[in-house]
Amino acid sequence: MYFCYVLKNLLEHINSTTDLRQLSASDLPQLAKELRQYIIEIVATKEGHLGASLGVVELTIALHYVFNTPDDLLVWDVGHQAYVHKILTGRKNQFHTNRQYKGISGFPKRDESIYDAFGTGHSSTSISAALGMAIASQLKGENRQHIAVIGDASIASGMAFEGLNHAGVTTANLLVVLNDNAIGIDPSVGALKQYLTNVKKGTQKQDNIFEALNFEYSGPIDGHDISALLSELERLKTIDGPKFLHIITTKGKGLKQAEKDQVKYHAPGKFDATTGDIIAKSNDNLPLKYQDVFGLTLVELARANTAIVGITPAMPTGSSLKYLMDEIPERAFDVGIAEQHAVTMAAGMATQGLIPFCNIYSTFLQRAYDQIIHDVALQNLPVIFCIDRAGLVGEDGATHHGVFDLAYLRCIPNLIIVAPRNENELRNIMYTAQRGLQHPIAIRYPRGRGVLSNWKSEFKSIEIGTGVLLKQGGDLAILSLGTISNTVSKAIDGLNCAHYDMRFVKPLDERLLHTIFKTYSTLITVENGVIHGGFGSAILEFAATHNYKNDVIVKGIPDTFIEHGSVELLQKTLNLDIDSLKKHIKSNL
Question: Catalytic residue positions?
């Protein structure tokens, strides 16, 4: 590590921002060292988002030292970098529970602390939220400061520019702090990144874009120089109207490996707190991750079909589009944090005969809903949506669970929706989709590893809208969708019931469903998505339309936001694990 940790126990006595403000400014660099060590030691064993929080230690201290939080309102964009904020605002002794079931959230959360002025988890919302707060304070005659912290990757998003554009024509007391470290989860991309790089180098010849938007611009300054931060924040606090502070930081600051490999140390898993070395997990004989099956299959298909292109909004590593970027870079596009643009760009490509595979996490696809409807489905353009992280995702919690996609997509005309149950099915539906499909298609698959040791099967076409019988049985049938089919198969081992993998929620396999409803008196649907409007709802609608009176029991995610915790634990609490499903099915036999 770069620092020599001298035990001075400043942090031991900091339990609130009031305690923080009792320190002298000369003590703050030492506090920064202690905070870094504290975060490193806990995240090393508990896991979480490391690099972003290490990069804003000095900034977080300075903000809470200068401003009267929580009366002054501080909004963190995304929230990956909020660990220091949580430790300094009364959650130090709970920090070891971060991202664990019933513990504190890994992101700012309004019902967790009065200091969390706005809940975040998706990017590029902080400017709009803080501006809304600032305008509310004006209307109520309140004298408050409002601070939005945003990164250089997030500020390139359209929503951030919408907020800047509006703020610039107001007199709102808003301070935007740009934390510029040239990286989000992957390295930042785009023309704005180059602009900011030129500003840092002093080679930018054009007018300052933020001054052109009527902000009082300051910077760039060293975001690890507490003295400089304190001085500039105190000055900006006295200026009315919209202000903009540009700071330069290093993601992973204070941990040598995290500074060197900022992508890997964004969320490194367990690592050695002393050396910084990541503790390798034994992956011997483990199935491949679904994202890697997608990425490697896309390369395989793209080699044979020159019309194929790949698109991701700022997640080339997380989606494994990096494989295509490495092999055929001219046909792989990271468009930055811009889900709306990604979808409509894919639509534009499709009009010209290209075959776009648009890979977006389920929770982030929500941000491009209008574009899915208006720009893709309405025009019936054959965009292939590969929806990663579908279903429960684990410790990132409510902001990241991909449980709504089936419900919010199912009502859209022209859109095919499929959930493969394993890696071979994923490969085969990708293969099918690029063979002249005349409609848009959404392919959803989960985070994590698959179930097959031999994932690289020979390609076979799948007939659109067809389900399959996996197991014959008595008077009860289980209808499952997607990879949860594998959990169901284990749960019904030895039980006298049938099991069907329906594969498609749109179009449904109506021929097969008629057979099922005429054969079995009781049906249980199982899905890794919300029960309201999802797969089970589709089956109930089919039954109502055709006047079937069978008992239909719907199992899935209830009508509530699911908190953070391991996927296995969350499945158990929702009665979607093997044992719970077995017990439930037995009770209905």
Answer: 251, 339, 367
